[in-house]
Every structure is written in structure tokens, then in C-alpha cells.
Amino acid sequence: MRTRARRPTVRGVVVAALAATALTLAPAAPAAAHNTLQSSTPTRDARLTTAPAQITLRFRQPLNPAFTTIVLSDAGQRRVATGEPAVTGPDGSITVDQPLGNGTYTVAYRVVSADGHPVQGAYQFTVADPSAPEPTDAAPPP
Predict the structure, then answer these.
(1) Structural domains for the chain
(2) What is the pTM of this model?
(3) Using one digit for the tens of pLDDT, what is the confidence trace for 26-58?
(4) How many other C-beta atoms lie within 10 A of the C-beta of residue 117?
């Protein structure tokens, strides 16, 4: 008895394509649980004419205050005095305790995702206030 080879139908091809797409996307699902930075004030690479009094980071998921760290550093990698991070839902913010002089600053953060994985990152912004003195990189006298 001979069997005839069947030609693929349009329906069969569509079902196979959908199944292949679903399998391709399935491994990406666990990564979706990781928290990500959505926006910030000041923004990445901003050039400000007035120094900020507060830094605010908005994430994709709500933050846990116990596992949220936000640090501000100057161009010499010295920590700038700030308040403790305040957390409201997906927003984390710090207040800057002293006026910032002209220069480049780095905001570094570390938060924990809903799946328990730590997420960290950093970005820079520059203060270029025309009325402020230029920063000095010299260390203060002992």
C-alpha cells in the first residue's frame, strides 16, 4: 500500500509558526521579573545650570525600602552627603544635604527585584552653574 505525501496547509504552517514563536519567547519570561530603571531626575548625561536638591529614580516595579540603596558621588569618587533613600512605590529618592558645585556627579543604585535578584547601575550628570565656582580636584589639607 502506498501513502501519498501530504502538502502542508496554510493552517498547518500558521500553527507551526505560532508554536515556534511561543517557544522562542518562553525563555525570556523569567528575565521579565527583574526590576529596571525607567527614568531619573536629573536624567542620564543631563547638563544642569542649577544643582539639584533631590535625586529621584523611577523603577518598573515597586521598591522595598530595606533593599534600596542610592549613592551620589563627585568626580573624585567621593561620596556626597545625602539623606537616606525615601521609597514610595516604584520611586526612590535622596535629598542632597549640601549645595553641589560645578562638576560631574555619579548616581549609583542597587535595588532588589520581585524575584529576589539584585539590580544595580549608575549614571552621570553634570552641574554647570555659570554663577558657581569651578570645582577643585585638590584634596583638602589634613
Answers:
(1) 35-127 (2.60.40.1220)
(2) 0.71
(3) 544 445 578 999 999 999 999 999 999 999 999
(4) 13
